[in-house]
Amino acid sequence: MNQSLRNILVKLRNRWSFSNTIKQSRDSSVEISGNLIATKVFIEGSSELYVGKGCRLRNALIQARGKNNKIVLSENVFFSGKIEVIGDDNEIRIGENTRINGADLYAHNGTEISIGLNCLFSTRIDIRTTDSHPIFDSDGNRINPDRDVHIGNCVWIGRGASILKGSEIGDGSVIGSMSLVSGDIPNRVIAAGVPAKPIRNDITWKF
C-alpha cells in the first residue's frame, strides 16, 4: 500500500470511525495527519487545529471556541487528555516526539501554552493559563489576569502535578509528582513541592 493511499484511509477512519467525533464550523480549519482513537474534536469560530504525521491521540477531547485560535500538535506526539481554548487569539503548541499520557490543558483569553520537544508527561496533570473566573478589587480592576505558560524541551512532569498561569519550566528539568508550579523553574533541575522549588541542580534524565 503506497503512502498516499494509507493517508487517505487514516483520514477516513479518523473522521468516520464510531469511536471518534470531529465537528468543525465553516470558518475553522482542521488538518489531521495522525491517528485518532476514542477522540472527540469540536472546533468553533475561525480556529485552527493541526495534528502532525505520526501523532496518536487516544481518549482525547479537543475544544476550541472563539476567533483566531490555534492548536498545533507537531509530528510524533502522543496525547491523552483534554485541550480547551476559549476566547480569541489563544494558542496551544506541543513539540515533536512529546508524550503526554494524561493532561488537561486550558488556554483562555488570548494566552498560550507552549510545550517543547521530547517531553514526557505522566497522568492527571493540569496546565492552565487562567483561574477560569475573574477577581476584581474594590475599584473594579481585575487582579488575576490570565498569563502564558511555557515548558521547555526534554521536560519530565510527574503524576498529579499542576502548572499554573505564568509558569515557565526550563529545558531538561524534572517536576516531581503532586507538585505545584507557580513561577520559573530553571534548566536541568529537579523541582518538587507546593510551591515547587529546585531540590537538585545540574541533572540529566533519559526518556
- For this entry, what is the oligomeric state of its chains? single chain
Number of strands: 22
Largest sheet: number of strands, sense, barrel closure: 14 strands, mixed
Strand content: 35-45%
Q: Helical content, roughly?
A: under 10%
Poorly predicted runs are none
Q: What would the average pLDDT be, to the nearest integer?
A: 92
Alpha carbon gyration radius: 18 Å
Q: Which overall shape is indicated by the principal axes computed on the Cα atoms? A: globular
Q: Report the span from N to C terminus.
A: 32 Å
Order of helices and strands: HEEEEEEEEEEEEEEEEEEEEEE
Number of helices in the DSSP assignment: 1
How would you classify the helix and strand content by structural class?
Answer: mainly beta
Characterization of this structure:
The protein starts with a helix and ends in a 6-residue tail after the last strand. The strands form 2 sheets. Strands 1, 3, 4, 6, 8, 10, 12, 13, 15, 16, 18, 19, 21 and 22 form a 14-stranded mixed β-sheet that branches. Strands 2-5-7-9-11-14-17-20 form an 8-stranded parallel β-sheet, with no helix packed on it. It is globular. It has 207 residues and is mostly beta strands. The chain is built from 1 helix and 22 strands.
